[in-house]
Structure prediction request, 89 residues.
Amino acid sequence: MSLNENAYEKYQHKTFYGMELVPDTRRLAMMNLMLHDLAVDDDNAGILFGDTLSNEGKVLPPASLILANPPFGAYSGDCDHPFRFNPIT
Prediction:
């Protein structure tokens, strides 16, 4: 099965996109897209650098499916959060 030109353009530039805050993780995600022959070089495709929970995340197009995983590391310079051991009840 082959895609027509319009379907291929949509697959390349408007299907897979995201945002990542950690530079090394962003590079890995972009390499994965490249290995699967997907565009990573414009504002509507690839993985942008930023924080999706801030205003930066508002630049992403609407999503019909979101894949995510919890953060496994800590930010450099991370310190204990004041509510970590005394949660608000």
